[in-house]
Amino acid sequence: MTRRRRAIGAGLVGAVCCVSVVEVCLAPPVVSRQPGAVAPRARRPASRPALPRVTSRPAVERDAVLQRVEQRAKTVTSVAADFVQHTYAPVFDEHDTRTGSLRLLKPQSLRVDWRTPAPPEAIVYDGEFFYEIKNGTRQIIKWTVAKKRPPGQGKATLDVGPLRFLAGIKADELKKDYLIALVDAPKDTQTYRFLLVPLKPGEYAQYKRLDVWIDRTALLPVTVRFHKKAREVETWTLKNLQVNKGVAKRDFRVKVPRGWKVIMDPA
Question: Is 191 within the bounds of a domain?
């Protein structure tokens, strides 16, 4: 699997395997100082992410659109689409374009197939296992996901991270996880554009900003753009969107072809 596809696979693993982290706060020890000793320098508080300067719509209008998107998501059980994935790395002035298709079946199934460039490859998540299907090396790498979740939690669902824009957002939860602006774009009558800055350290480490274009009629995303480290920008453009049709459970079953090797739970 190429570096770019591996990065996407890792990102999706992180999304579907997302677990809550319990922070244990310990009181600092009391340290006695000798007379005349210099007090230790106080740590600077971590800087809070902030929205870039944009011309945005009023918050009440932003919230009204988010509520419409949330209500629409409740009617969606499956999504199928073709995509163009374009990545630009300015450090090397490198452009990378890939095409493929994705299928999503709520609440737990996801499949992404890259068709070009060759060889075709795929990642599949069925709620219990995560697979990398590597045609170039005739290998299937399989991770057990369900066992890694904390006791008492059920199987992971897809309504986390950027995937929630396809699997279904909850407006109130979204506003807890991101700083959000509905960008004012008077000439764009086809889409709503949201600009989001993640507040969670884990997501913020993966991308500093997220731009999402929502079709005004379908109320589903048609473009998602990640602004990453080193100014790398990755854009997913969805085409031929099909909602509640063309997706079945069998699409997420992974069969091992004759002569292929299965690698189970690699380090």
Answer: yes
Residue 47 lies in a domain: no
Q: For tokens 């396809």, what's the residue? A: 166
Domain count, the chain: 1
- Which tens digit of pLDDT belongs to each residue from 189-233? 999 999 999 998 888 888 899 999 999 999 999 999 999 988 999
**Alpha carbon distance 20, 17 (integer Å):** 10
- Asked if 199 and 189 count as a contact pair (C-beta separation under 8 A), the reply is no
In a domain, 17, yes or no: no
Give the CA dihedral 187, 95, 120, 264, nearest 10 degrees: -110
The DSSP 8-state label assigned to residue 106 in this structure reads: T
Residue 247: give its domain's CATH number.
2.50.20.10
Q: Decide if 19 is inside a domain.
A: no
Output the CA–CA distances (angstroms, integers) from residue 31 to 28, 37, 40, in the order listed: 9, 12, 10
Distances (CA, A) of 249 to 53, 74, 133, 207, 220: 44, 20, 18, 31, 22
DSSP string, 203-255: HHHH-SEEEEEEETTT-SEEEEEEE-GGG-EEEEEEEEEEESSS--GGGG---
- Laid out side by side, the sheet with 121-125 consists of 178-182, 191-198, 209-215, 221-227, 233-243, 78-89, 94-105, 109-116, 121-125, 129-134, 139-144, 261-264
Model confidence over 63-110: pLDDT tens digits?
Answer: 999 999 999 999 999 999 999 999 999 988 999 999 999 999 998 899
Q: Which domain range does residue 182 map to?
A: 54-264
Q: Rounded to an integer, what distance in angstroms lies between the CA atom of residue 143 and that of residue 141?
A: 7
Q: Look up residue 20 and give its amino acid.
A: S
pTM of the model: 0.79
